[in-house]
DNA sequence: TGTGTTTTGTAATAATCGATACAAAACTAC
DNA sequence: GTAGTTTTGTATCGATTATTACAAAACACA
């Protein structure tokens, strides 16, 4: 018994994510958002809260899709090294193929705000722990199957991989030379 | 035959660098700058140009000091692996010790603006080429002295190292666990 | 066909944004 | 001391910032 919403809430969130991802938090204005989401300011505030709240919601939606992608890749019945190569290669490809070269939304957010925004800091720390634990689990699986040397420290290798995940995302934003990036994959995998 | 400046131009630039480094380009206001630099707006504009020009000048000053540090480390008469470990360890330490956890000014700038600002994009690309060539040179030195396997591709290893330089800087901004970061150093060095 | 409820569009809020006009102040050179 | 030059401080510019008041519009239910 009320006027129904004219826009799709999930689609609007996706649009907001795209804008924040491209321009960052401080670089995005409410006007940018309302234009891209095709709603007006009162609807935005009523639906998503203020700018900061919308940003956090968009960031978490991004991370969820990232986790989903990773969870699926890790659970495949393939050699561990192949999975890791697939993960890194996909990170490189998706970054290079993005016409806007936005890199990784989480990395962008860390470098913009983690030192000033405690909520973002916490999200970033949780994200790191999550990804590292998934990678450590993957390494352990490789050790159980004999693909990875059993005497290596799985947590240490997971940290190493996480560093490279982040580094690859930063670099693919400015380096369009796919061969350079791909050649480094061999070095990364040789450490495992 | 004119009124002399009351402030030190180089010191002001350093202050501007500190603010941009901490808060990013969009997150920094002229008011932030004039407060920190202890000058007023007209002096800022007369001396450094507009906000964007000041930002670029500050960024280039940052890169110069970075290059100077690296050039010196690389030219030392020590085993190549030791130099690389020193470089990475210093990156980790300086990031963790910074009470403001600002990470790397160049990384922050890449993830904030490289996809929207052609001048910044060019600076970032030049920076990457420069650092990669310095690292490749170092690797080749290691190959000449027998410290690094001669059949490995020096450029590839340089790309690999550059990825890890970037990754370490991003992660040290949110992860305060020095042990985790340091433990990954062994994995990085094992790939060389 | 109303009645109640919520969204919508418009319009405006105070605050701050980057940038500058203008005149007083401060210095050097003569 | 005076003339010439540049920096300084103040005050302000129009534009944009995030956010909201308010009323018309659009639906569900009776």
* Structural class assignment of chain A: mainly alpha
How large is the count of helical segments of chain A?
Answer: 9
Q: What's the end-to-end separation of chain A, in Å?
A: 61 Å
Number of strands of chain A: 0
At the fold tier of CATH, the topology name of one domain in chain A is Tetracycline Repressor, domain 2
Oligomer: homodimer
Could you please describe the fold and organization of this structure?
- 2 copies of one chain form a homodimer.
- Chain A contains 9 helices and no strands.
- By secondary structure, chain A is mainly α.
- Chain A has a domain at about 60-190: Tetracycline Repressor, domain 2.
- Chain A starts with 8 loop residues before the first helix and ends with a helix.
- The model of chain A has no long low-confidence stretch (mean pLDDT about 95).
- The interface between A and B is large, with 50 and 49 residues.
Key terms:
mainly alpha; DNA-binding; Tetracycline Repressor, domain 2; 73% helix; homodimer
Describe how the helices and strands are arranged.
Two copies of one chain form a homodimer.
Chain A: H1 9-23, H2 30-37, H3 41-48, H4 51-74, H5 80-97, H6 105-113, H7 118-144, H8 154-171, H9 178-190
Helix pairs in contact in A: 1-2, 1-4, 4-7, 5-8, 5-9, 7-8
The structure holds a DNA duplex (30 and 30 nucleotides).
